[in-house]
Amino acid sequence: MTLLRELALYLTVLLFLLFSGSFVMNIIDARSYFQDQLESHAQDTATSLGVAIATTEPDNTAAIDSLVDAVFDRGYYRLIRFIDQNGNLIVSSQHELQLEDVPQWFVNLVDLNAPLVASEVNRGWLPAGVIYIASHPGYAYRSLWNKTLYGVFLFGSGLLLAILGLNILLRIVLRPLKKLEQQADAICHRSFVQQEVLPKTRDLRLVVEAMNRMAGKLEEQFAEKMVLTEELRKRSVKDALTGILNRQAFDDRIANVLQDEERGEFGGGLLMVQVSGLDGFNKKNGRNAADLLLVDIARRISKTVEPWPEATVGRRSGTVFCVFVPACDLAQSRRITKACFRAMASLPFFLSEEGHDRLHIAMVTRLGRSSADEMIKQADQLLRSLQHQSGSSWEVKQIDDSSYQSYNHWSEGNWQESLQQVLKGQQVELFYQTAYDINQQPVFREVFARLRLLGELASAEAFLPIVERFDLHVDFDKVVFETLMLHMQKDDSNTRYCVNLSPRSLLDEAFFRWLLDTLKALPDVTARLILEVPERTVVMAGSEMPVLVKRLVQTGCRFSIDHFGIVSRSMTSLHELELDYIKIDGSFVRGISNNQGNQFYIRTLAMLAKSRDITLLAQGVEQKEDWQKLHELGVQGGQGYYLGRPRRL
Predict the structure, then answer these.
(1) Which residues form the GGDEF domain (predicted)?
(2) Which end of the chain, N or C, is less surrounded by CB atoms within 10 Å?
């Protein structure tokens, strides 16, 4: 029972007792008053009637009878009797006690006693007899009954108004307690809200102020933990000078893509930038100037490849920078390389006589399976061959793979026409891969889309970049979502399904409204649905992301972020978003048993996720020893080829 209800109950009982006691005492006082009035009324009438009888002739019985009838017929008396001095009954008039307007139970309960009073009748100095009179209690009962009814109505109305007023007052006074409950519950979920409006009641105001101080302190501590974790992540994966990935993190990231059973099938492009002659520049201009040049180079490379959101930028050595773009064909590789060369060649150092021949960019692309070491080796060989040429230069080389599907060589016109036909006919085939908890019990099924091109099923890595390029992301996500919803309506099990949404689709206003309407129209299906977006969506959406997620989860679905840990400032999403799942990117998972830096990061992330009741999962679990180590670090589940391969839905 809540404090409000308990106080309301106690005070209601107290008011009821007070009102009931007052009402009963009022009725008792009224009864005593009527009791006295009946006796006084009978005594006064006996005295006056005795005087009247005394004036009559001794044997004039008719006159005495007339006097008695005149008084008795008024109806206020139950009994009038005159007995002479010899004991003879001269006159007797009597009414039965019958009350039609008063309930019998009330008569029995009140029990008004109308006493029989007597008065001597004297003629001169001689006694003439005794007159007996008893008042009729009917009028007293009737008056007392009406008074009781009026009192019940009056006191009942007053009691009801008092109870209602008391409950309203208690709700107003104790309203801060409800807010305190909500605030405490929010703190448990690491949402450190503070009450801006303080209660007027001094005691409650002090409690709310103390709660606000506690929430502020906890928020500071949680923020410090997130900053510390983010700083440790940066130190383990970021280059200290330029802020881009260091060599180890870059190699892990591209190895994660190329070793993936599905994404690795479509290869990618590796760009390598070599800046020569920095030793002389450093001696001439100082270390700070050289550092600023390297930072500017890293910034321009990162800015240039922004249109390719899946691109990974890293620094492999002091003057060597690399960029890896998954599923990148020859045409894209040329555009990327040319854009990077132009962006850096305009730097003052490369325009000077000292640096005009110091910039070389090589990019190799392979449209098929390859290893990270092989691609780095090919790019390094191409880069060294460029350095033997005079002047700054760039070159792109394709490493042929005859096993790769020919649709990757389609022109943009062929791609656009084929994709539009597939989407128009909703020719999307769905596969799923099950995510398991640490006990290898199914958690949900993550859905993947496949398109049939040239008679073969192509995975998302082959066509999603083209979908994004031609702004078909909204149409593609709609087709996938509708296909999944139809399947879920037919599936009467309690299986949860996870579907990925493009960041650009989620941020499209028309698509978001359509998505909300669809989710609200199918509440039973929505309750088994998990919406998932890549971590870069958080950066793209900015301050809008918490609002978008909140509106989606209000429909009954759940929300997840995958490839977590790649984007800087990603830890803030733990605090701001209403998340149910977080998936650690596979680059942190592969080889985790031998990577102390990643182990510390994942262990800290697991503690923070647990404090927010967020389920932490791992992507790309390929080895048994990695799965066991993840369990030790506090990860609650995962998915990958070690746990289960994709299947047709």
Answers:
(1) 266-399
(2) N
